[in-house]
Amino acid sequence: MKKIKSKQYIVMAxxxxxxALVPIFINNNYYITILNQxxxxxxxxxxxxxxxxxxxxxxxxxxxIYALGAYTSALLSRNFGISPWLTxxxxxxxxxxxxxxxxxxxxxxxxxxxxxxxxxxxxxxxxFATNLVxxxxxxxGVKNIPRFAVGFIQLDSNVKYFxxxxxxxxxxxxLSIKITHSKWGRExxxxxxNVDAIESLGLDIKKIKIRAFTIAAMYGALGGALYAxxxxxxxxxxxxxxxxxxxxxxxxxxxxxxxxxxxxxAIVITLLPELLRFLGDYYQITYCILVLLCAVFLPNGLISLxxxxxxxxxxxxxxxxxx
Length: 323
Prior knowledge:
Helix content is 77%, strand content 1%. It is an all-alpha fold. The protein has a two-stranded antiparallel sheet with strand order 1-2.
């Protein structure tokens, strides 16, 4: 098991290195835009993995969290001239508050009821963002959102911003690995596996669930802030239920509960719409069929293909050795 995990970490590091090299060989601004969105998606899925992947609590409120992080950072930086670095911290703090608030419904509700609660939260945020025109701009959105600056270096190009977001994502990936293998991570998995056993050990389930929601919300809000400053324009029409579902699909396709699976899921689901765009009107149904097939035949995600291939190879080797 340790050998498999170490190989995953090596491949994970290689994946980040390859992503870092892509802008050197590809100058197309459109592709660099997709790369930025892909890396931001990774960051958000890392957070969702704590609550849905490890703790087993379905969260369909990611779009609402993402939106609040985006609007908080965008409005503070554009309207009040505050540094994006500080507004990004403010967005993470908003995520902390959201996580604490959303965590409490999870104490009394599970399954579909919790899904509907988080989904309702996301829709409420979208409706407020649409109707509070004087603050959010409604469907016209918030424009001219400033970019980050690192010292004297302005991140005024998509390539520069990509490397900035990539570094942030790598740092949070390492933090996610640390948390997953810490006492907190073991508690999260225990809640998913056997709640009654946790209670018998005297652990506080309330704190564990709220902690998972809080971490997920902080990651999601940070992702929203990074998206807002990258795109330099946000509108309420971007933060729909489809966005929340997309993040759950990324988690599922890659491998629930596995950080390397999160990376794979974010890459595949970000690129898939672009790869299938040539199908035109048949794009949506093809996309849904592929996701459905993956859910049926690979319930543990694409990450499980390695284990299956390894098992098949060992089985063939054993047969040859026995001959």
